[in-house]
Amino acid sequence: MFYEPKDGHGLPHNPFNAVVAPRPIGWISSRGADGSDNLAPYSFFNAVAYVPPQVMFASTSTKPDRGDTKDSVANIRETGVFAVNIVGFDQKDAMNRTSGPWGREVDEFADAGLQKAACRTIDCAFVADAPATLECKLTQIVKIEGEANFVVFGEVTGVHLRDDCLTDGRFDVTRFSPLARMGYMDYATVRETFTMDRPTD
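Structure for Flavin reductase like domain protein, as requested:
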């Protein structure tokens, strides 16, 4: 089939959500100017540069108590920092809990039963037992086409790696099976990897 998004797809569910998959999940922790903490997952997330290391995530909806965006972007606008927590398979239920439409007064760490730890380079909390966490300073927020679409870019200023996720000096994703978003309400995990060398001639 072929369709133009502006005309609709005619299917029971939007197939675009399943085309670009799997997508890594950025479990974004942020802190408002009032000191309140927030934690929410975003599947429009990725690393975008090596030097300096930089990441991005996109927020695509609004909340009644946050005007044109959601808690994460609103907090980052106020404080200029955020942390990206990597989600392991064992944390899937807690991650899903933090995706709920809770009011800005709700601390998702507490609501999901997660232990907090303090970031070292920024004033923000992170998920204490996350396989890895990237501490980030905001570089820019870009408004893109669409009513509530914002892309947040940050420079990584600190990296936490859980010791049991290191194997022979490498960060080993098979030790925690990272969670990825597929289409619709589907998820996947990474349990196996393989290696290919780049061609040299």
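Residues 71-79 form the longest helix (9 residues).
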